Amino acid sequence: MKVCIIAPYPGFPGGQIIQALEIIRGFKKEGLKVHFLPVNPPLNGAWGWFQRVKYFRTLVNTVAYFFRLFRSIKNFDILHVFSASYFSFLLAPTPAVLIGRFFGKKVILNYHSGEAEDHLKRSFRIVNKVFKKVDALVVPSLYLKKIFEQFGFQAEVIFNVVDLGTFAFKKRENFKPRFLVNRSLEPMYNVGCVLKAFKIVQDSYPEAELFVIGSGSEEKNLRKLSKELDLKNVFFTGVIEHEKIPDYLSKADFLLNASNIDNMPISILEAFSCGLPVISTNPGGIPYIIEDDRNGFLVNIDDHEAIAKKAIFLLNNPGVAIRVAWTARQDCEKFYSWEVNRDKWLKLYKVNEKNL
Question: How far apart are CA 221 and CA 325, in angstroms?
Fold first, then answer.
């Protein structure tokens, strides 16, 4: 049984590629033949130059992707296609589904997007036609399953996974005001709210530190806001290679997340695994993975004062932070490990363990 994983190239930050690589890594260790086909393959020479030009990038990537898909599809039994929403859905997953169906391949569509509800409302007719052609529709959260059911689609839930060895648990007993936010710097993730919350915390703890991991269209505005708030010890790191994220998590004591739209952030699961208490806003799928005061803390969207209040509370009540951090790690072992989710993928692939 040969499986082709279709997803963004690793240089493209985001949960899709992290999950794609986890699946590839997991199954290759066990002998399943898994191949990775990027939707934005890196190119050399003149093509590589065009790939770096804004208005040519999409065209060049699409041509290269189509060429490689047509050339290699005969070698695979299953296409496991990762999908986001809106234009991205049309550009990469849709052609893979249609081409896979044309060649008689089994197609699994693995949909990841906190914007699913709006996407389905805007593009229901197109999405409906594509979904009807797949053999299985998979989502990583109960939240997306519920959204899809509202539009008449049945989806299988297979949770995102986190490598519990790489993202090792660090027991903290004396918590310090060292915070981290790990999201793309885009409007939907509202990192400005984290900066405003950090301002309140730093007024009480002048030595407080904040690492801002990621990049995006809001970076310039966020740096400006940091200066306007007169923040100290705020470190904008840019995009960090995923294998280096555990180093930053080990330096921090708390993860902050203030997104306005979200599904199942990998950054929260990684913080869970490493023992960082998580304080987050409550959009979309986040309340499906964080239970307030059990494995993390929830506040309303855009409420920087509530984030700051909860952070200060935890600094003053380390026993609560220890309890919540340990519960979150146990949840990772119970729900978000590769060992727990591998058999669900094998069942969809219809591969018996004895045949691996």
Answer: 32
Q: pLDDT at position 250, please? A: 96
pLDDT digits (tens, 9 = 90+) for 300-346: 999 999 999 999 999 999 999 999 999 999 999 999 999 999 999 99
Amino acid, res. 255? L
Q: Which helix H or strand E contains 2, and what residues bound it?
A: strand 2-7
Cα gap 15→21, rounded to integer Å = 10
Distance CA 276, CA 252 (A): 8
278 pairs with which residues across the strands?
A: 255
**How far, in Å, CA of 103 to CA of 268, rounded?**
39
> Average pLDDT for consecutive 10-residue bins of the chain (356 residues)?
88 80 90 88 57 64 83 93 92 93 95 94 95 96 96 96 96 95 96 98 98 96 98 96 94 97 95 98 97 98 98 97 98 96 92 50
Instruction: Show the beta-strand stretches assigned E in 187-300.
Output: 209-213, 234-238, 254-257, 278-281, 297-299
Q: How far apart are CA 174 and CA 209, in angstroms?
A: 16
3: which residues sit within 8 A by CB, 6+ positions away?
27, 32, 33, 34, 35, 76, 77, 78, 80, 349
Q: Specify the pTM.
A: 0.92
Q: In what order do the strands lie in the sheet with 278-281?
A: 234-238, 209-213, 178-182, 254-257, 278-281, 297-299
CA 316/CA 105 separation, integer angstroms = 57
Written as six digits, the tokens of 304 are 């920087």
Q: Options 2.60.40.10, 3.40.50.1450, 3.50.50.60, 3.40.50.2000; which CATH number does 2-160+338-355 get?
A: 3.40.50.2000
Q: Which two three-digit tokens encode residue 28?
A: 């290759």
Residue that the structure tokens 């529709």 belong to = 137
CB 112, CB 82: distance < 8 Å? yes
Architecture of domain 178-335: 3-Layer(aba) Sandwich (3.40)
Report domain extents, the chain. Answer: 2-160+338-355, 178-335
State which H helix or E strand residue 270 sits in. Answer: helix 266-274
- 8 Å CB contact between 283 and 301: yes
